[in-house]
Amino acid sequence: MDPDFRARIRAGDESAFGVLFREHGTAVYNHCFRLTGERGSAEDCMSLVFLEAWRLREKAEPHGGSLRPWLLGLSTFVVHRRRRVARRHQALMERLPAPEPLPDFADELAGRLDDQERLVAIRQVFRRLSRADQNVLALCVWAGLDYAAAAQALDVPVGTVRSRLSRARRRLEKLTEKNLGFGVELSSTNWRTTGDRTIAVRPKGDTGN
């Protein structure tokens, strides 16, 4: 990395921010997608992350290596702030009169648990984990950060990342086995359901950089 790159970012150099986006935009999008499970939301969050990076540019550490951990830390903050706004909106909507009920098509869909449906089910279990567990899984398992980089992104000690990741893996495996009837194994790129084919969660085009 250019030794002056962080100084250029902190100074608000637009060309440096262009480089920052080209190098890390995909990683930021993928991290947001893993936390939200929705492509549209992930795209919105990615845009907000780089707006936050611009707004908070002077808070970036003046020395260090890749700015990817800093950006992923901002991504985590943006996603959770968006969730809080969504919850407030949902609470408001729940106070409005209920719409007319739609026909129930559940019987037509029974027994059609394909890969997409199973992935949705796993994500529902994933959201039952604590915020700390979700964050460390998203950063270490899917984004591929090592313990030190994840610790930097979350602003916690390395030992905390290690213990959270171990706990999060155990909890997720137990929850899927208990609630979905199948186990799940985690790798850096996939969910793997026990006794079944792999269900990829890394979006197309993710290089993990």
Please sum up the structure shown.
With 209 residues, the chain is mainly alpha-helical.
Tell me the layout of helices and strands:
Elements: H1 5-10, H2 14-36, H3 39-55, H4 68-94, H5 106-109, H6 115-126, H7 131-142, H8 147-154, H9 158-180, E1 184-186, E2 190-193, E3 198-200
Antiparallel strand pairs: 1-2, 2-3
Helix pairs in contact: 2-3, 2-4, 2-7, 3-4, 4-8, 6-9, 7-8, 7-9, 8-9
Structure explained in plain terms:
By secondary structure, this protein is mostly helical. The chain is built from 9 helices and 3 strands. It has a 3-stranded antiparallel beta sheet with strand order 1-2-3. A hairpin with a 3-residue loop joins β1 and β2. The chain is globular. About 30% of the residues are buried. The C terminus is likely disordered.
Notable traits:
single chain; 209 residues; mainly alpha; 3-stranded antiparallel β-sheet; 9 helices; disordered C terminus
Let me know the largest β-sheet: 3 strands, antiparallel
Major beta sheet, strand line-up: 1-2-3
As a whole number of angstroms, the C-alpha radius of gyration is: 19 Å
Any idea what the shape is?
A: globular
SSE succession: HHHHHHHHHEEE
Instruction: Tell me the helix content.
Output: 55-70%
Strand residue content: under 5%
Strand-pairing-aware structural class = mainly alpha
Average pLDDT works out at 77
Give the low-pLDDT segments: 102-113, 187-209
Distance between the termini: 14 Å
Number of helices: 9
Number of strands: 3
